[in-house]
Amino acid sequence: MVRPLAERLRQDGLKVWFDEWEIKPGDSIPATIEAGLEHSRVLVLCMSAHAFGSDWAQLEAGTFRFRDPLNRERRFIPLRLDDAPIKGSLAQFLYINWRPAEREQEYAKLFEACRPPAKPKNVDAPGAGELVSAEAIQLDLGWKEADWRVYCTAFDADRRRVLVCGQDNSIWLFDLETGQRLQVLKGHTTWVVEVAWSFDQRLVLSGWYGLTKSTSTSEQLSPMPRTVHG
Length: 230
Description:
alpha+beta, Rossmann fold, Thrombin, subunit H, 20% helix
C-alpha cells in the first residue's frame, strides 16, 4: 500500500525517501532512518493498525521535530490508511484520508502538500537573485583618488550602465562592460547627492544639496550615448 504511493510521488517529480529503497544490508536501521529524517523537508506518516503497534513510542518520538509549530522549514502530513483509531498526540492533526475509497481524489491534496514551496518572484527588480559577477570593473574617473568622492550611484535596468555622482557637481554615465565614460551631465552648482533613472531609461532625476535644502532637476540623456572627455 505504501510502496505504490512512494513510486507514484517519485514518478510525479518528487524526491522520495522510502526505507525499502534506502536501507541496505548491514546498515543500522535506526541510524539510517534518523539520517533520512534529518535531510527531509516533509514527513508523510502512514497511520494504520500496524503502525500503532509495538513501536508506537519510537514512531511518535520520530515525528516530533516535524510537528513543532515553530519549525516552518518542515511539514508533517498524517496519512490515514485504515479505520484504526488514531493514537496519542496525533489525534489533534488534520490528516489526509488514504482509505481505499478516497485515495484518488485525495492524491492531489497530498501531492500539493509535499511539493516544495514556490520561490518568490520580484517583478520590480529585473534579475533579482542572479549571481553577481565577482570581477571588479575600474571606472575611468579621470581624477586622483584624493580629489574625488562618490556620493551616489544608480544602475540602469539592464545593469550595463551606471550613473555616478561626485564632488565635482556632475553626473557621470559609465559603460559597465568597458569602464569608459559615455556622457557627463553638468549644471549643478553643488554636490549631487541623489540620482535615479526614469522608467524608460532616457531621463535622469538628480538632487543636489544646497546650504538650506535639497533641490531636484531632470537631465536628458543623449539618444545615443557618446564618449565625453573632460
